[in-house]
Fold this sequence. Notes:
2 strands; two-stranded antiparallel ribbon; NADH-quinone oxidoreductase subunit L; Proton_antipo_N; single chain; ND/Mrp_TM; globular; transmembrane helix; 26 helices
Amino acid sequence: MEKNLALVLxxxxxxxxxxxxxxxxxxxxxxxxxVGTLSVLVSFFATTYFFSIIQSTGKPIDVINLxxxxxxxxxxxxxxxxxxxxxxLWLMFVTGIGTLIHMYSISYMHDDENMHKFFAYLNLFxxxxxxxxxxxxxxILFIGWEGVGLCSYLxxxxxxxNQEYNDAAKKAFIMNRVxxxxxxxxxxxxxxxxxxxxxxTLKTTVxxxxxxxxxxxxxxxxxxxxIGATGKSAQIPLYTWLPDAMAGPTPVSxxxxxxTMVTAGIFMVTRMxxxxxxxxxxQDIIAVIGAGTAILAASIGLVQNxxxxxxxxxxxxxxxxxxLALGLGAYEVAVFHVITHAFFKACLFLGSGSVIHGLHxxxxxxxxxxxxxxxxxxxxxxxxSTLAISGIFPLSGFWSKDEILMTAFHGNIVLWVVGSIAxxxxxxxxFRLMYLTFFGEFRGTEEQKHHLxxxxxxxxxxxxxxxxxxxxxxxxxxxGNSWLNHYLAPLLSKSEHAAHHLGTTxxxxxxxxxxxxLLGIGLAYSKYIKKGEVPPQDSQIKGxxxxxxxxxYVDEAYETLFVNPIYKLSHFFRNYFEVFFSEVVFAFGKIAxxxxxxxxxxxxxxxxLYLFAFVLGVSSILIYLFLV
Length: 628
């Protein structure tokens, strides 16, 4: 039964994709939305069943082998799926939040002429994410890994008639391929070292072989795997694609940022934790990169004016905190923040979409304000999620972020300071977003003001559910009484981070984190409510704010260092190499043509000339055969 139900879990979104591709246009928008949403809901129900089994027995479901995929002398790979604590937990929010986002999309995308295509891509995205999470080995993970990359390209560039959106899709696709090269090299090294890529066999081999500790290839493999994670989860230096991915429709942003693609790197590192545990210097790199990404993205978020781009840099920053936890070996803490982040970030993105929907496409917060009364459900749900991401007690973000900072404090005091500053910045820019959007006087056009309204229930219901989850989600891992740590304990080989018992130090750290969050909120209140400031127009931004607004000119640096040289190299090959080889090929044709022209003059109808040529030919053959 488990095997059949696992196949239902996996294939339901794929069936919806096929339906929407071939029959969606004729079926109508209502049917398209219903099929797309129900298919993911079916996967969620199946996941819930598996979750209940694992929760009651404490044991994973047996590995589900479909067939032998690759068979070599010493290397065998089965096409198999694994439903253990980690994969089922991940599937819970992939399919659960995925269902809410599909439901939201029915209303949000209703006026789009290609709604059937949008739902088809959305279903395919969820299907590949399920493959990535459920795979029983690294090769199947790689199929899902590449699949979500393809779907992100299709969805980011969904409104393909806009060249800027197309460029954003290409940027996401290419930058992810850079990371994927690192992942592939890591897979090859692990395959070479252990003759397998199967999770269970790999873990057993690694943990039982003490000699492997001296092999430098293990560290190189871990580093390559992390490079793959930097691409998918937007870490330094491969983070710049994620803010540009805002070009896609808002439900896509919510799906990518909250439940699917960007969490893939966290999942992979957690799944392969036994390899990373063998390479402490790689873990140090991960922690430093994570902390650096957190504060870099948070500082950029301070001055962004596009409501979705503020949230995008917030995602990059929060992912940085998750990698900080991974680098410190606190895998369960990173997973905890992935879960709470999925709740409040999905709510925030869908809430921003509700605002954009109410303002007929307006995304610049300088043209908003005073929406609190016109859109009360959107306001309150976003306010709850903003308090959660800011780390205010007792909302979910407080507990998960506090766990990360507490782990950093015990692991490396400098990283704790960096993470704390990033958290203060987060509180500031998130409340900057709220104040500019919902408070003060409306700064849009009269026409927009006249049509202000709350979004329909298909949009507000997912917001309410996600806001509730953002409120109570932290209960799964309270300090000293963590259900999550107990749930994941059979999976993780290290247990020293399993629980932080509350003492004077822990209470003190909680107090510092809370004061920091209140400081950020207070600064935003002073600037945007008390003084009533509105960010200046782009041309008037000066000084450090201009550097932050232009994202430290990293895109421009990449353009100069990588894009332009590659363009010039490709132009060189096109203008010289291609021309040279074309001329060589055409030269053979010209020679053959010239010979043919001369040959035609021989065919003049003279029988005598033909007989002479015949005798000459026969004589030549006889001389060659008998005299040469």
